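Structure ticket #2291
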Amino acid sequence: MSIHTEYSLDRATMITIMVAALGYFVDIFDLLLFSIVRIESLQDLGLSGDELLSKGILLINMQMAGLLIGGILWGVWGDKFGRVSVLFGSILLYSIANIANGFVESVNIYAALRLIAGIGLAGELGAGVTLASELLPKKWRGLGTTFIATIGVLGATLAAVVAEYTDWRTAYIIGGCMGLVLLALRINVRESTLFKNMKEGVSKGNVFMLFARPDTLKRYLAVIFIGAPIWGVVALFITFTPEFAKDMGLSISPKAGTAVLACYAGLAVGDMLSGLISQFLQSRKKSVVVSLCMTIVFVGLYLYVPHDSLFIYYALCFTMGIGIGYWAMFVQMGAEQFGTNIRATAAISIPNMVRAMVIPITTGFHALVPSLGVVNSGITVMVVLLVLAFGSLAIVRETFHTDLDYLEK
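Resolution: structure written out below.
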């Protein structure tokens, strides 16, 4: 059964959107788990002192490199063989990798498994958003993606709770098992009608089409830069929260897991707000501008408000989450910028390109720390990311009312 009016959805579509949201929930659980258990897991493997930062950066960069590789692989796969197949393959790969992560005994094996898990994690969000965008009426596309993202980011909340009440190995195993359970729910997921109706002979999943024309490449890079401040906040201020708190003079060291919990609770609120603002303003771009302005304000408060207690620190992490809570709008923009024949390639690879930007973000941050210190290095990196984001918004097209039934040539 298909969508029969502009205001009603059939059962298969609603199930598909719900399962996509749950898939992203598990995806975020596993993606953020390392940030939460970084110190505990590395200490358990015998590391201490400066190695907790340097090896932590190595491991998160391996995970992000996997996301970069997987973003391309799953994107091409989704355009050639269907969006639903990505939802099955990606969750199977990262679930197995995370279960294996619970049994590591060396940093090298840890790093290899984070790479494999990253490849698997790359497919979930982009495939889910592509499905939602192609199944829902254009008036509801933004709300569908907002629902997926809002439910999804709550996975970080569960990850923080699980890590608080179990050891790090058990937390990885729980995350992997949740993914395997979710596989059973995907039996009734419906394929995109736009994908199924593509004519034979159309070039599908050709990643080089993103780079062949200056206009296409410009749009592709612009959307990536628009999303970069989101992971700048998460990769720096949240992941390395003990280091920032110490440099800002907080006497009691906050827990990275609680910082993640606070930030992603704010992110869930921010995702809902950005979706509602987009609907109210009838614009994706204006909604992102509002979020970026809030990000500037809340990051400024985080860095310069006196941190007299852990409650204030975590509250500021929450507000930063609200500011960067435009992840749904950013991914939606990525899906809507390109034709059906390369939409999955773009929509799946773009958020993972943003996640992979954690590599230059953390590498640049680490290089600046000896001369500028932790806080000033974080400020420098974030200023660069925000300038790129605002500049890129002037390049991309407004897509709120765009009909997605077209092909890239």
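Closing remark: Residues 1-7 have pLDDT under 50 and may be disordered.
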